[in-house]
Amino acid sequence: MHTQIFVSTEFQKSAMDAEAAGMEEGKDMKNSVMCQLTDPEGTPLGPSMYLPQSAGPKELQQIVNQLLNNEEKLPYAFYVSNHELVVQLDSYLQNNKVSLEKVLTIVYQPQAVFRIRPVTRCSSTITGHTEAVLSVAFSPDGRQLASGSGDTTVRLWDLNTQTPLFTCKGHKNWVLCIAWSPDGKHLVSGSKAGELQCWDPQTGNPSGNPLIGHKKWITGISWEPVHLNAPCRRFVSASKDGDARIWDVSLRKCVMCLTGHTLAITCVKWGGDGVIYTGSQDCTIKMWETSQGKLIRELKGHGHWVNSLALSTEYVLRTGANDHTCKQYSSPEEMKKVALERYKKMRGNAPERLVSGSDDFTMFLWEPAVSKHPKTRMTGHQQVSY
User: Fold this and answer.
1) Where are the coiled-coil regions (predicted)?
2) Sign of the CA dihedral 293, 294, 297, 299?
3) Could you report the per-residue pLDDT of 124-146, keeping only the tens digit for each?
């Protein structure tokens, strides 16, 4: 079964000509093609129809808007075999050697009705630090910003008013790293002196004395995901001294020291499966279990320092149970449950993936739970990948 669609005058005439040709058995159909429009789920939009091969995305948009009876003309993108259609049908058919004897399935997908414009101006300049700003981090609910500076202070900012909330003093050297707990109850900062300080974001006051243990400066901080443990108590810190340490903010002490790297640790991540990843200048990435601090696996492949790590689940790990609704939870158990649901939804059926950047100008994509070998090696940078 086929049908005829009326759009602009010129296109309408071509479509009618093609339709008439299709209705005459044995008629030459070289200038038209039988098409079936479907939504992304595969639901057909009306019956199949003959379209002139001169039709392109503009004409297809007219057809879709007409078939959907859209009062306001909406933009659509079109895909054939998972490739976006950006040319006329005849060009696509010729380039891909598509047979005209088969119905061509075209998937339409609605696009944003607004135009994305580049940022052309700064919305606010937040001043206060007297030396270079070395680290910044948004709170899990997106309402606050924390910044660490060479002036040895940590500052908390209200993002709604874009004004300062607290100036946190206590460090004796540059503040190099900052990390919020996923439940938003704690903020930890690490300094060039190798000490860590936990702060209360509600008051800006330190939560006890500095945490001492590292022999050199702090290079990274990462919290245990809230879906694994609520309320948040544990975080891991990495240092130039080559060690990673797990701390308990309730006990106010280091509960585990992860040793094994032969050079400085440059980055650290606490994954959603409860595994800690550390990248080092010894060119390796090590995986640690967190109950006893044992080494699980070592990932090798980079030819120079490992400078950075990123997880595919990082966003949901950092925000925990927080979403755009900013809902308040009555208990840690409820927060943990919601955070776990968000994590499972984000991860899906795929394993957690890890990307590493190196001084060898490359990035590696890993599936650490599946294999110790990289899934792919990504090249292209002409300088160091940070």
Assistant:
1) none
2) positive
3) 889 999 999 999 999 999 999 99
Note down the domain range covering 265: 133-327+334-378
What's the domain count of the chain? Answer: 2
- 330-342 pLDDT tens trace: 788 888 999 999 9
Amino acid at 141: D
Contact 29, 73 (CB under 8 A): no
Assigned domain for 115 exists:
no
| Burial class for 356, CB neighbours closer than 10 Å (0-12, 13-18, 19+) | buried
CA dihedral 255, 261, 263, 267 (to 10 degrees): -70
Q: Which residues are CB-neighbours of 369 under 8 A, at least 6 positions away?
A: 273, 275, 351, 352
In this structure, what token pair is assigned to residue 319? 């925000």
> Do residues 193 and 246 share a domain?
yes
Residue 120 lies in a domain: no
CB atoms within 10 A of CB 347: 16
Q: Which of 206, 186, 92 is nearest to 139 (CA)?
A: 186
Backbone angles phi, psi at 63, to 5 degrees: -65, -50
| List of residues 6+ apart from 12 with CB closer than 8 A | 6
Q: What is the pLDDT of residue 83?
A: 87
Looking at residue 289, what DSSP letter applies? E
Q: In 61-150, at which residue ranges do the beta strands (DSSP E only) sit?
A: 76-80, 83-84, 104-110, 133-138, 144-149
- Strand 48-52 to 2-3 pairing: parallel
Give yes or no for a contact between 292 and 303, defined as CB atoms under 8 angstroms apart: no
Looking at 77, 110, 143, which one is the last position of a domain?
110
The backbone torsions φ and ψ at residue 175, rounded to the nearest 5 degrees and listed phi first, read -90, 110
The predicted model scores a pTM of 0.68
